[in-house]
Amino acid sequence: MEIKIKSLKFDAGEKLTAFVEKKVARLEKFFGGAQPEAEVTLEDVKDGKKVKMHVHLPGEELIVDRVADTFENAVTGCVDAMKERLTRAKEKLIEK
Q1: Vertex 77 angle, CA 74 and 80, to 5°
Q2: Which residues contact 49 (CB under 8 A, 6 or more apart)?
Q3: Which fold has domain 2-95?
Q4: How far apart are CA 69 and CA 33, in angstroms?
Q5: What predicted TM-score, i.e. pTM, was given to this entire model?
Q6: For 14-48, what is each residue's pLDDT tens digit?
């Protein structure tokens, strides 16, 4: 899985980047066969830390975003939501 990380208005440290890559890489097992691309945008907003995740699949694009008190919590929330979206997308392909 190819993972692109963008940090808006700040520089993401190595620890944060490694955490994001580790969490997002786990999504690959929920949609085997295809080579999905993931784009993760990290942004420090007024309400907290915002993470927006795009997963590009063949013929489909899944988008999830979360706001939390830390980037780690927002990333974990995005990954959990994306697992469900990927599972549903895989089930739709199997039905066809």
Answers
A1: 150
A2: 42, 43, 67, 68, 69, 70, 71, 73, 74
A3: Double Stranded RNA Binding Domain (3.30.160)
A4: 35
A5: 0.85
A6: 999 999 999 998 888 877 656 678 899 999 888 89
